[in-house]
Amino acid sequence: MVTTVTLSPSVDKTVTLSGLKTGGVNRAESVLFNAGGKGINVSLALSSLGEKSEALGLIFDKGEIITEALSGAGVAHSFISCQGGIRCNTKIYDRASGITTEINEKNPGVPPSALSDLKKLAAERCLKSDILVLSGSVPPGTPPDIYLDLAEAARRENPDIKIILDSSGKPFLRALDASPYLIKPNTAELEEAFGEPARTPAEVVSLSRRLIEKYHIGVVLASCGAGGAYIVTPEEALFAPPCKISPKSAQGAGDAMTAGACLAVLRDLGAADILRYGTCAACGSVELEGTAFCSRARFEELLDGCEARPV
Asked: 31, 149, 165, 256: most buried, per Cβ within 10 A?
Protein backbone atom coordinates (compact mmCIF):
# COMPACT_ATOMS: atom_id res chain seq x y z
CA MET A 1 0.00 0.00 0.00
CA VAL A 2 1.22 3.48 -0.91
CA THR A 3 0.22 6.65 0.95
CA THR A 4 0.79 9.98 -0.82
CA VAL A 5 0.78 13.46 0.72
CA THR A 6 0.04 16.64 -1.25
CA LEU A 7 0.38 19.97 0.52
CA SER A 8 -0.26 22.14 -2.53
CA PRO A 9 -2.98 20.67 -4.77
CA SER A 10 -3.96 22.41 -7.97
CA VAL A 11 -6.27 22.50 -10.94
CA ASP A 12 -4.12 21.94 -14.03
CA LYS A 13 -5.26 23.72 -17.21
CA THR A 14 -3.47 22.44 -20.32
CA VAL A 15 -3.76 24.55 -23.46
CA THR A 16 -2.54 22.96 -26.70
CA LEU A 17 -1.72 25.06 -29.78
CA SER A 18 0.54 24.98 -32.81
CA GLY A 19 3.23 27.66 -32.86
CA LEU A 20 3.19 29.85 -29.73
CA LYS A 21 3.44 33.55 -30.63
CA THR A 22 4.69 35.60 -27.69
CA GLY A 23 3.16 39.06 -27.65
CA GLY A 24 0.55 38.02 -30.23
CA VAL A 25 -2.85 36.32 -30.42
CA ASN A 26 -2.86 32.52 -30.11
CA ARG A 27 -5.73 30.15 -30.90
CA ALA A 28 -6.06 27.13 -28.65
CA GLU A 29 -6.62 23.78 -30.36
CA SER A 30 -7.78 22.17 -27.13
CA VAL A 31 -8.12 22.96 -23.43
CA LEU A 32 -8.06 20.28 -20.72
CA PHE A 33 -8.68 20.59 -16.99
CA ASN A 34 -7.18 17.98 -14.65
CA ALA A 35 -6.65 17.43 -10.95
CA GLY A 36 -3.08 18.34 -10.02
CA GLY A 37 -0.55 18.34 -7.24
CA LYS A 38 2.39 15.94 -7.21
CA GLY A 39 1.19 13.45 -4.60
CA ILE A 40 -2.29 13.40 -6.13
CA ASN A 41 -0.69 12.73 -9.52
CA VAL A 42 1.30 9.84 -8.05
CA SER A 43 -1.90 8.28 -6.70
CA LEU A 44 -3.70 8.73 -10.03
CA ALA A 45 -0.72 7.28 -11.92
CA LEU A 46 -0.63 4.28 -9.57
CA SER A 47 -4.33 3.72 -10.19
CA SER A 48 -3.70 3.72 -13.96
CA LEU A 49 -1.01 1.11 -13.37
CA GLY A 50 -3.43 -1.05 -11.38
CA GLU A 51 -2.04 -0.32 -7.91
CA LYS A 52 -4.00 0.96 -4.90
CA SER A 53 -2.97 3.97 -2.86
CA GLU A 54 -4.44 6.54 -0.50
CA ALA A 55 -4.08 10.26 -1.15
CA LEU A 56 -3.78 12.60 1.84
CA GLY A 57 -3.12 16.30 2.03
CA LEU A 58 -4.60 19.77 2.19
CA ILE A 59 -7.55 20.95 0.10
CA PHE A 60 -8.76 24.47 -0.67
CA ASP A 61 -12.01 26.07 -1.83
CA LYS A 62 -13.22 24.93 -5.28
CA GLY A 63 -11.07 21.82 -5.02
CA GLU A 64 -13.91 19.45 -5.93
CA ILE A 65 -12.12 18.52 -9.16
CA ILE A 66 -9.46 16.88 -6.97
CA THR A 67 -11.78 14.69 -4.93
CA GLU A 68 -13.95 13.86 -7.96
CA ALA A 69 -10.91 12.75 -9.98
CA LEU A 70 -9.64 10.58 -7.14
CA SER A 71 -13.05 9.03 -6.52
CA GLY A 72 -13.46 8.39 -10.25
CA ALA A 73 -10.12 6.57 -10.33
CA GLY A 74 -11.01 4.51 -7.26
CA VAL A 75 -8.37 6.20 -5.09
CA ALA A 76 -9.12 6.46 -1.37
CA HIS A 77 -8.51 9.98 -0.10
CA SER A 78 -8.70 12.18 2.98
CA PHE A 79 -7.92 15.89 3.07
CA ILE A 80 -7.69 18.66 5.65
CA SER A 81 -9.82 21.61 4.47
CA CYS A 82 -8.27 25.10 4.34
CA GLN A 83 -9.74 28.47 3.44
CA GLY A 84 -8.92 30.25 0.18
CA GLY A 85 -9.25 29.37 -3.49
CA ILE A 86 -7.23 26.50 -4.92
CA ARG A 87 -4.42 27.45 -7.31
CA CYS A 88 -4.72 26.98 -11.06
CA ASN A 89 -1.60 25.96 -13.00
CA THR A 90 -1.65 26.76 -16.71
CA LYS A 91 0.40 24.60 -19.09
CA ILE A 92 0.83 25.80 -22.67
CA TYR A 93 1.89 22.98 -24.99
CA ASP A 94 3.24 24.11 -28.35
CA ARG A 95 2.70 21.17 -30.68
CA ALA A 96 5.03 22.65 -33.32
CA SER A 97 8.09 22.83 -31.07
CA GLY A 98 7.14 20.14 -28.53
CA ILE A 99 7.82 22.66 -25.74
CA THR A 100 5.57 23.11 -22.69
CA THR A 101 5.48 26.48 -20.91
CA GLU A 102 4.15 26.44 -17.35
CA ILE A 103 2.57 29.25 -15.31
CA ASN A 104 2.11 28.00 -11.74
CA GLU A 105 0.11 29.87 -9.13
CA LYS A 106 0.48 29.64 -5.34
CA ASN A 107 -2.07 28.36 -2.86
CA PRO A 108 -3.06 30.49 0.13
CA GLY A 109 -1.15 30.10 3.37
CA VAL A 110 -2.38 27.47 5.84
CA PRO A 111 -2.87 27.68 9.61
CA PRO A 112 -0.59 25.64 11.92
CA SER A 113 -3.65 23.69 13.09
CA ALA A 114 -4.20 22.30 9.58
CA LEU A 115 -0.60 21.10 9.39
CA SER A 116 -0.87 19.54 12.84
CA ASP A 117 -4.05 17.71 11.83
CA LEU A 118 -2.37 16.48 8.66
CA LYS A 119 0.62 15.09 10.60
CA LYS A 120 -1.74 13.12 12.86
CA LEU A 121 -3.71 11.86 9.87
CA ALA A 122 -0.59 10.76 7.96
CA ALA A 123 0.88 9.00 11.01
CA GLU A 124 -2.38 7.11 11.54
CA ARG A 125 -2.72 6.04 7.90
CA CYS A 126 0.92 4.99 7.65
CA LEU A 127 0.35 2.26 10.21
CA LYS A 128 -0.89 0.03 7.37
CA SER A 129 1.21 1.45 4.55
CA ASP A 130 4.43 0.23 2.93
CA ILE A 131 5.47 3.52 1.29
CA LEU A 132 4.92 7.17 2.15
CA VAL A 133 5.38 9.55 -0.80
CA LEU A 134 6.13 13.16 0.15
CA SER A 135 6.15 15.27 -2.99
CA GLY A 136 5.58 18.71 -4.37
CA SER A 137 5.82 22.32 -3.30
CA VAL A 138 4.37 23.71 -0.07
CA PRO A 139 1.98 26.65 0.50
CA PRO A 140 3.44 30.05 1.43
CA GLY A 141 4.47 30.33 5.08
CA THR A 142 4.66 26.56 5.61
CA PRO A 143 7.62 25.65 7.87
CA PRO A 144 10.49 24.19 5.82
CA ASP A 145 10.61 21.20 8.19
CA ILE A 146 7.13 20.03 7.17
CA TYR A 147 8.26 17.00 5.14
CA LEU A 148 10.84 16.09 7.77
CA ASP A 149 8.12 16.26 10.44
CA LEU A 150 5.74 14.12 8.37
CA ALA A 151 8.42 11.50 7.75
CA GLU A 152 9.37 11.33 11.42
CA ALA A 153 5.72 11.14 12.52
CA ALA A 154 5.11 8.25 10.11
CA ARG A 155 8.23 6.40 11.25
CA ARG A 156 7.22 6.66 14.91
CA GLU A 157 4.06 4.72 14.07
CA ASN A 158 5.62 2.42 11.46
CA PRO A 159 9.42 2.12 11.64
CA ASP A 160 9.49 -0.09 8.52
CA ILE A 161 7.75 2.36 6.21
CA LYS A 162 9.78 3.45 3.18
CA ILE A 163 9.87 7.21 2.60
CA ILE A 164 10.02 8.46 -1.00
CA LEU A 165 10.79 12.16 -1.39
CA ASP A 166 10.23 14.31 -4.49
CA SER A 167 10.32 18.00 -3.68
CA SER A 168 12.61 21.01 -4.02
CA GLY A 169 14.05 23.95 -2.11
CA LYS A 170 14.28 24.03 1.66
CA PRO A 171 11.52 21.44 2.31
CA PHE A 172 13.47 18.96 0.16
CA LEU A 173 16.84 19.75 1.72
CA ARG A 174 15.51 19.60 5.29
CA ALA A 175 13.69 16.30 4.66
CA LEU A 176 16.97 14.67 3.66
CA ASP A 177 17.71 14.49 7.40
CA ALA A 178 14.99 11.82 7.59
CA SER A 179 17.20 9.53 5.45
CA PRO A 180 14.50 8.68 2.88
CA TYR A 181 14.60 5.29 1.21
CA LEU A 182 14.42 6.93 -2.24
CA ILE A 183 14.65 10.50 -3.49
CA LYS A 184 13.75 11.64 -7.02
CA PRO A 185 15.57 14.89 -7.76
CA ASN A 186 16.05 16.34 -11.21
CA THR A 187 19.48 17.62 -12.18
CA ALA A 188 18.64 21.18 -11.04
CA GLU A 189 17.76 19.89 -7.57
CA LEU A 190 20.97 17.88 -7.42
CA GLU A 191 22.89 21.02 -8.25
CA GLU A 192 20.97 22.95 -5.59
CA ALA A 193 21.90 20.45 -2.91
CA PHE A 194 25.65 21.03 -3.39
CA GLY A 195 25.96 24.18 -5.50
CA GLU A 196 27.84 22.16 -8.12
CA PRO A 197 26.98 21.18 -11.72
CA ALA A 198 25.20 17.93 -12.58
CA ARG A 199 25.47 18.06 -16.36
CA THR A 200 27.47 14.91 -17.16
CA PRO A 201 26.86 11.29 -16.14
CA ALA A 202 29.94 11.38 -13.90
CA GLU A 203 28.68 14.54 -12.15
CA VAL A 204 25.18 13.11 -11.63
CA VAL A 205 26.59 9.92 -10.14
CA SER A 206 29.12 11.75 -7.97
CA LEU A 207 26.55 14.14 -6.46
CA SER A 208 24.06 11.30 -5.96
CA ARG A 209 26.65 9.21 -4.11
CA ARG A 210 27.52 12.15 -1.89
CA LEU A 211 23.84 12.53 -0.98
CA ILE A 212 23.66 8.81 -0.22
CA GLU A 213 26.71 8.94 2.02
CA LYS A 214 25.81 12.19 3.79
CA TYR A 215 22.16 11.40 4.50
CA HIS A 216 22.14 7.57 4.46
CA ILE A 217 19.72 7.45 1.54
CA GLY A 218 19.06 4.10 -0.11
CA VAL A 219 18.38 5.13 -3.70
CA VAL A 220 18.70 8.28 -5.81
CA LEU A 221 16.52 8.29 -8.94
CA ALA A 222 17.69 11.33 -10.90
CA SER A 223 15.49 12.45 -13.79
CA CYS A 224 16.89 14.38 -16.75
CA GLY A 225 13.65 14.94 -18.69
CA ALA A 226 14.09 14.06 -22.35
CA GLY A 227 17.68 13.10 -21.52
CA GLY A 228 16.62 9.96 -19.66
CA ALA A 229 17.17 9.03 -16.03
CA TYR A 230 19.82 7.66 -13.68
CA ILE A 231 19.58 5.47 -10.61
CA VAL A 232 22.37 5.44 -8.07
CA THR A 233 22.78 3.25 -4.99
CA PRO A 234 25.87 2.59 -2.83
CA GLU A 235 26.66 -0.35 -5.14
CA GLU A 236 25.28 0.58 -8.58
CA ALA A 237 24.94 3.43 -11.07
CA LEU A 238 22.65 2.84 -14.06
CA PHE A 239 21.18 4.92 -16.89
CA ALA A 240 17.99 4.44 -18.92
CA PRO A 241 17.35 6.43 -22.11
CA PRO A 242 13.78 7.56 -22.78
CA CYS A 243 11.51 5.14 -24.63
CA LYS A 244 10.82 5.73 -28.31
CA ILE A 245 7.50 7.56 -28.21
CA SER A 246 5.67 10.50 -29.77
CA PRO A 247 5.48 13.08 -26.96
CA LYS A 248 2.33 15.15 -26.43
CA SER A 249 2.67 16.55 -22.90
CA ALA A 250 5.36 16.29 -20.24
CA GLN A 251 2.93 17.38 -17.53
CA GLY A 252 2.93 14.85 -14.68
CA ALA A 253 5.76 12.79 -16.17
CA GLY A 254 7.91 13.11 -13.05
CA ASP A 255 5.01 11.99 -10.87
CA ALA A 256 4.40 9.03 -13.17
CA MET A 257 8.08 8.15 -12.74
CA THR A 258 7.63 8.21 -8.97
CA ALA A 259 4.57 5.95 -9.32
CA GLY A 260 6.52 3.48 -11.43
CA ALA A 261 9.32 3.47 -8.86
CA CYS A 262 6.76 2.82 -6.10
CA LEU A 263 5.43 -0.18 -8.04
CA ALA A 264 8.93 -1.67 -8.29
CA VAL A 265 9.65 -1.03 -4.59
CA LEU A 266 6.37 -2.71 -3.61
CA ARG A 267 7.49 -5.74 -5.60
CA ASP A 268 10.85 -5.69 -3.81
CA LEU A 269 12.73 -5.30 -7.11
CA GLY A 270 16.29 -4.05 -7.53
CA ALA A 271 17.74 -0.77 -8.78
CA ALA A 272 17.60 -1.68 -12.49
CA ASP A 273 13.88 -2.44 -12.32
CA ILE A 274 13.10 0.65 -10.24
CA LEU A 275 14.74 2.69 -13.01
CA ARG A 276 12.98 0.78 -15.79
CA TYR A 277 9.56 0.94 -14.12
CA GLY A 278 9.94 4.67 -13.48
CA THR A 279 11.12 5.39 -17.02
CA CYS A 280 8.31 3.45 -18.70
CA ALA A 281 5.57 4.91 -16.51
CA ALA A 282 6.87 8.40 -17.30
CA CYS A 283 7.28 7.86 -21.05
CA GLY A 284 3.85 6.24 -21.33
CA SER A 285 2.34 9.34 -19.73
CA VAL A 286 4.24 11.75 -21.98
CA GLU A 287 2.41 10.16 -24.94
CA LEU A 288 -0.90 11.52 -23.57
CA GLU A 289 -2.31 15.05 -23.62
CA GLY A 290 -2.80 17.02 -20.42
CA THR A 291 -2.13 15.49 -17.03
CA ALA A 292 -2.95 11.90 -17.96
CA PHE A 293 -1.19 8.70 -17.00
CA CYS A 294 0.08 5.55 -18.63
CA SER A 295 -2.15 2.48 -18.63
CA ARG A 296 -0.98 -0.85 -17.26
CA ALA A 297 -1.07 -2.41 -20.75
CA ARG A 298 1.04 0.36 -22.31
CA PHE A 299 3.44 0.28 -19.36
CA GLU A 300 4.10 -3.44 -19.85
CA GLU A 301 4.52 -2.91 -23.59
CA LEU A 302 7.17 -0.23 -23.05
CA LEU A 303 8.86 -2.28 -20.34
CA ASP A 304 9.79 -4.99 -22.84
CA GLY A 305 12.09 -2.58 -24.71
CA CYS A 306 13.50 -0.61 -21.77
CA GLU A 307 17.11 -1.21 -20.78
CA ALA A 308 19.07 -0.05 -17.74
CA ARG A 309 22.74 0.37 -18.66
CA PRO A 310 25.73 0.67 -16.31
CA VAL A 311 27.18 4.18 -16.20
From this structure: 256
